[in-house]
Design a protein that fits this description.
Elements: H1 11-17, H2 23-39, H3 44-51, H4 55-58, E1 62-63, E2 69-70, H5 72-99, H6 106-110, H7 113-121, H8 131-135, H9 141-150, H10 157-166, E3 170-171, E4 174-175, H11 179-188, H12 190-198, H13 203-210, H14 213-223
Antiparallel strand pairs: 1-2, 3-4
Amino acid sequence: MAKDPAFLFYSSDFLTGTMFMSNEDIGIYIKLLCVQHQNGVIYQKDMSKICIGHTEVMQKFQVDEKGNFFNARLREEIEKRLKYSESRRNNRNSKKDMNNISNTYVPHMENENENENKDINLDKEGVIGETNQVAKIPPEFRFVEEYFNVKGELEQAQRFYDYYTSNGWKVGKNKMKCWKSAVRNWLSNKKTYQKDANTTNSSDERIAGRLTKGQVEEFINRTSDLKF
């Protein structure tokens, strides 16, 4: 199979990590990431030519035992994608053997990078990441933030995440099954949820709200002889 032509690029993470870098440093950083993706590492001579004098960029890279440079996050994403691709091929080959399918479809399926990119990068509702990671509960905040951004309600992401983190990711008394459905429900009823999220949890107020008339009279009778 041909060399994988792409790697995952998390725009939100990248913007956060480069927020205070100059545009020149960002350009150099992207160039170095591309060099690492193509070669596996960045050789010392290449690092010296591309990154000389840009110490902030160099801090984004580590040095291996041979003195070559690499970005740890990029290496992790490349390895994850490679394992995913191998798993897909193995599953396809197993199905072919079990069902005695003709090999004529293999050339057509061999150049599968575009389809795999879609599978690993984008779930059906526009959230970037491996679909099994996107679906897990509790989700990573970056997925939640990105989904709210897709919905045009980015400012609601932190409120939503804090609210459900505080209640153990439950809907009512039941464990949440789909956080994206909860997001859609949140946006449909955001005024109600915001009121719930901002309500003071004063125990005195909650107790007072549940007192019956008889309990109030009993309290007054018990305290009527107290002197202040």
